TrEMBL record:
One of its GO terms (molecular function) is chromatin binding. Belongs to the CBF/MAK21 family. InterPro entries: CCAAT-binding_factor, Nucleolar_cplx-assoc_3. It comes from Rhizophora mucronata (Asiatic mangrove). This is CCAAT-binding factor domain-containing protein. Residues 7-104 form the CCAAT-binding factor domain. GO terms for cellular component: nucleolus. It comes from the Eukaryota. GO terms for biological process: DNA replication initiation. PANTHER family: NUCLEOLAR COMPLEX PROTEIN 3, NUCLEOLAR COMPLEX PROTEIN 3 HOMOLOG.
Length: 225
């Protein structure tokens, strides 16, 4: 289809164009660029398919025999792609990669005039190769508003860390105090246990002394007798 210069069946071409636009939303920048270059090439060769760039329902002035787009139809002639619009290009115009964004915006601005024919300057294969190599050195654009919001959130997180550190310090102080109280408690228990042992020893000594006194008294009585 791409290698032939003649215009193709409008339903099939529109179905392929619509599928390429959907494909561009689902993959990386290199795949998206290759699909967009292919899509642009098809729109340039099939002028009537540029009606998909119009915003009204039914693909602009051409709707075909099927009034509603069927994306899961196996037969492109029954998909009704001409009843849809390329709304995917609006999303791709906000793509993080500037080349994809510019290409999608350029395709969206293509008119449906019969005499507007622009030859492509880049093949899909070359686009895929170039942007696959570009992945290694590419750095996405930074939104200054989001960056400022991150800074604000960063200052808030600093305050949160200060609060958390204060709570941790209080917990640490409470733990030290609790440890001291537990230590005093177990020391007291140890003293009580030691006191019990001393009392038992004292009772034994007292009993022994009492028995010794009784023995002495008994011995004195025997002497008198």
């Amino acid at each position: 289809m791409l290698c032939e210069d003649r215009q193709h069946d409008m339903q099939k071409a529109a179905a392929f164009v619509k599928r390429l636009a959907t494909f561009s939303l689902c993959f990386g920048s290199a795949e998206s660029m290759a699909a967009l270059v292919t899509l642009k090439h098809l729109l340039q060769k099939n002028v009537k398919c540029r009606n998909l760039l119009e915003n009204d329902a039914g693909g602009g002035s051409v709707s075909g025999s099927i009034a509603k787009y069927q994306p899961y139809a196996s037969d492109p002639n029954l998909s009704g792609a001409l009843a849809s619009v390329l709304w995917e290009l609006n999303l791709l115009s906000e793509h993080y990669h500037p080349a994809v964004s510019v290409t999608a915006s350029g395709i969206s601005s293509m008119g449906s005039a019969q005499n507007q024919v622009i030859l492509p300057t880049l093949s899909p294969q070359q686009a895929f190769t170039d942007f696959s190599l570009d992945k290694e050195a590419f750095e996405p654009r930074v939104n200054t508003k989001k960056e400022s919001n991150k800074r604000k959130r960063g200052s808030g997180s600093t305050e949160l860390r200060i609060i958390e550190d204060t709570i941790d310090a209080a917990k640490s102080a409470d733990e030290d105090e609790l440890q001291k109280k537990l230590s005093d408690h177990f020391l007291l228990l140890s003293d009580i246990k030691e006191n019990k042992k001393l009392r038992v020893e004292l009772d034994r000594t007292t009993s022994a002394l009492q028995l010794y006194e009784e023995y002495k008294q008994l011995k004195k009585r025997r002497r008198k007798v």
